[in-house]
Amino acid sequence: MADDIFDLIIKGEIPCYKVYEDDDVLAFLDISQVTPGHTLLVPKAHVNDIFDYDEQIAEKVLLKLPKLARAIKASNSKITGINIQSNNGPSAGQTVIHSHWHLIPRFDDDNLNSQLAPAIDHSADFTPERYQAIAQQIATNIKEV
Ligand code: 5GP
After folding, report:
1. Residue range 40-89, pLDDT digits in tens
2. The whole model's pTM is what?
3. What is the distance in A from the centroid of ligand 1 to the CA of 80?
4. Where is each HIT domain found (predicted)?
5. Which of 98, 100, 102, 122 is catalytic?
6. Domain total of the chain
7. What is the rounded distance in angstroms from the CA atom of residue 103 to the CA atom of residue 83?
């Protein structure tokens, strides 16, 4: 199977703003930044979507979600909530066919409605320096992931 965009990021062949990595997962900023700090948690194993997970992969990936969520919240005192979403299958809006979990920080004044909106693209508002500063702030708040 040909590498998808997330395989290339995992291999380091395409750069990313990394916030966490271990043997099983990579977490990095979503380029679109629906809100500042929008992070993707991606299994390194190539699983297309939730329907592909076995118990071992599910445990390795899903147990990281609360710890990553806490690090994101701790990275910015204005973050008051977080949406966690995974789109599975093109009919559900999945555009990259390599399973991933969106962690989208929410702010009291973010002017988004309460439904999840990972299709919003704010990348034009983000310089490399701003992405890097956000990724670093999350990474330094990760504890025992
Ligand atoms: P999906 O629509 O499959 O749920 O989400 C795919 C996500 O991947 C989108 O939010 C999109 O912004 C993000 N994305 C696509 N290509 C890249 C990339 O090259 N780098 C990063 N960091 N994110 C990407």
Report:
1. 999 999 999 999 999 999 999 999 999 999 999 999 999 999 999 999 99
2. 0.91
3. 24
4. 5-113
5. 100
6. 1
7. 6
